[in-house]
């Protein structure tokens, strides 16, 4: 038997999952402000600001996330989150705050998703690479954990006009 006529398994194209963001009006009275609780986590997305007006491209902090949690009593204390999203020229910052309480899910990611939504960000896509047809569907990562933070935050920075490479720096997130 020759291998030239042997059937071959069909090749499967890899799915190109992606996450994108768009901006809508921020939620009134939900801009970021530090709560009266200890900060327990922080993260920054460092991005390349494009060259413009004769100024060279440079690395800047495009997005900042902070989480707060009063560690007292039961595990049902709320987690609070604040997000700040910079414009490429640094003249404008979008911000939002969110919170999540109760138990039985990942409260940190829910609070962060709530803060991002309050800042006027709408996410689309599927960062889990399950199905490329989901790329145009709304994405709610709240309560699902932290494994795709970098992908989601990079999509937000790209929507604001930043370009890679990106560096996600996490302190406890």
Would you kindly provide a written description of the structure presented here, covering whatever features stand out?
With 173 residues, the protein is mainly beta. The strands form two sheets. It has a five-stranded antiparallel β-sheet. A two-stranded antiparallel sheet has the order 1-6. It has two helices and seven strands; from the N terminus they run βββββαβαβ. It is globular and about 55 Å long. About 3% of the residues have low confidence.
Summarize the structure.
By secondary structure, this protein is mainly β. Helix content is 13%, strand content 34%. It is built from two helices and seven strands.
For the largest sheet, list the strands in their spatial order: 5-4-3-2-7
Our count of domains comes out at: 1
- Which class best fits the helix and strand makeup? mainly beta
Tell me about the largest β-sheet.
Answer: 5 strands, antiparallel
Shape: globular
Task: Tell me the radius of gyration.
Answer: 20 Å
Name a few traits of the molecule.
173 residues, mainly beta, five-stranded antiparallel β-sheet, two-stranded antiparallel ribbon, globular
Write the layout of secondary structure elements.
Layout: E1 19-23, E2 39-49, E3 58-69, E4 79-86, E5 93-100, H1 107-118, E6 121-125, H2 149-159, E7 163-171
Antiparallel strand pairs: 1-6, 2-3, 2-7, 3-4, 4-5
């Amino acid at each position: 038997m020759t291998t030239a006529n042997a059937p071959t398994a069909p090749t499967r194209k890899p799915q190109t999952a992606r996450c994108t963001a768009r901006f809508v009006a921020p939620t009134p009275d939900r801009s970021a402000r530090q709560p009266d609780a200890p900060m327990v986590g922080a993260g920054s997305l460092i991005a390349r600001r494009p060259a413009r007006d004769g100024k060279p491209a440079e690395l800047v902090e495009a997005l900042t996330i902070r989480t707060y949690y009063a560690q007292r009593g039961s595990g049902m204390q709320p987690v609070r989150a604040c997000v700040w999203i910079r414009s490429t020229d640094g003249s404008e910052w979008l911000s939002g705050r969110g919170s999540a309480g109760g138990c039985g899910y990942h409260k940190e990611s829910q609070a962060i998703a709530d803060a991002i939504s309050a800042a006027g960000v709408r996410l689309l896509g599927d960062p889990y690479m399950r199905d490329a047809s989901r790329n145009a569907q709304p994405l709610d990562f709240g309560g699902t954990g932290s494994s795709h933070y970098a992908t989601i935050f990079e999509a937000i920075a790209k929507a604001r006009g930043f370009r890679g490479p990106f560096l996600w720096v996490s302190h406890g997130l």
